[in-house]
Amino acid sequence: MNKEFLSILDQLEREKGLNKNVLMETVKHALEVAAKKIAKLNAPGAEVRVEIDPVKGDISVYIGDKEIVSKEFGRIAAQTARQVIIQKIREAEKEGVYNEFKGKEGDIIGAVVYRFENKAVILDIMGKAEGVIPQSFLSPLDRFRLGERIKAYVYEVKKEKGTQIILSRKHEGLVKKLFELEVPEIYEGIVEIKAIAREAGERTKIAVFSKEDKVDCVGACVGVRGSRVKNVIEELRGEKIDIVRWNEDIKEFITQALAPAVISQIELDRENKRAKVIVANDQLSLAIGKRGQNVRLASRITGWELDVRSREIMEEEMKSVLALKCVGKKVAASLVEGGYNSLDKIIRAGEEALAEIKGIGKKKASQIIEEAKQTLSRAILNNDAKKSQ
């Protein structure tokens, strides 16, 4: 029986990857516990020792110096071995699932919608494990059916009541990995994804760069008649995607990132990574986008804070500030750039706030505010006089 027991351990070691020595130690421990119960009755305080021959499988139990021979130990060994083996197989399978999917963090996997639970989506992953997409990790466009096959981003794998696989449909990494699947040039490293900015369910901007002059990075991502980008959009349930050509020249990159708007001028503050972008009045809404989305995504993809302004509006603001005799063009530009683009805002700002602007000290700030008050008062009086006529 003992040899058969060892044979089973050998087989499990080969097929399940269980360590035979660990199993044997666990069985030894169980036998020691049983022997201590006998020793407590027959020889209190005596040392208990259990030995298992790793070659023959023979079991020897000693209480003190005396070997105890009992069929009971063989029965206990068999029962314990069975329980330990079942437990270790389960642990090994759980550990195997954890190790396999832990290595997939940051990648995407295909899975089948299995059930819905508390607004989360539970997925069957290759029949090996279950993954969960929490509601907060779903795109607003996601609408799934039971049995539907989808792709998801492996956000996190953790040991919590077994192996917990957290998936996401909202992460920017999902878009990146989908393009790697669809565009061979990206997978091969010829085209590189430099940056991604995403508002899941609405729009994504992806900046790409080609390492070979003969390969058009944007064309490679779009594909013949848009086939490649269409596949990505379809997986994302219709989310809009802007493919932007990355450029070392930050002005050119910003121009590309704000497309389709036409940019008139860009002024850079390299120290603070801020850029003032000037556009024609009819391009302002395009540059800013619906609810500010275009400029917001462009800021994230470039890594620069973008302040988009209309040329016509800026000129009107400059005229208003330049109406003050004590203000020159440079100071007027600084005031407008700081957001003080009207006499009312200059007055409400106060001396301390204006004094912080480059080129304006406390004395100058006081002078500007005083003249702004006088100019605004005159304007109000003139308007009242016109109304009374």
Structure description:
With 389 residues, the chain is an alpha+beta fold. It folds into 5 domains: 2-102, NusA, N-terminal domain (N Utilization Substance Protein A, Chain:P, domain 4, 2-Layer Sandwich), CATH 3.30.1480; 108-170, Nucleic acid-binding proteins (OB fold (Dihydrolipoamide Acetyltransferase, E2P)), CATH 2.40.50; 176-240, K homology (KH) domain (GMP Synthetase, Chain A, domain 3), CATH 3.30.300.20; 247-318, K homology (KH) domain (GMP Synthetase, Chain A, domain 3), CATH 3.30.300; 323-388, DNA polymerase, domain 1 (Orthogonal Bundle). The chain is 47% helix and 24% strand. It is built from 15 helices and 14 strands. It has helices spanning 2-16, 20-42, 71-102, 172-182, 184-187, 217-222, 227-235, 250-257, 284-288, 293-302, 311-322, 329-337, 343-349, 351-355, 362-388; strands at residues 48-52, 59-63, 66-68, 108-117, 120-125, 129-133, 149-159, 163-168, 191-199, 203-210, 240-245, 263-269, 274-279, 305-310. The protein has a 5-stranded mixed beta barrel with strand order 4-5-6-8-7. Strands 1-2-3 form a 3-stranded antiparallel beta sheet, covered by helices on one side. Strand 9 and strand 10 (203-210) form a beta hairpin. Helix 2 packs antiparallel against helix 3 (71-102), helix 8 (250-257) runs antiparallel to helix 10 (293-302) and helix 13 (343-349) packs across helix 15. The longest helix has 32 residues, at 71-102. The radius of gyration is 36 Å and the shape is elongated. It starts with a helix and ends with a helix. The relative contact order is 0.05.
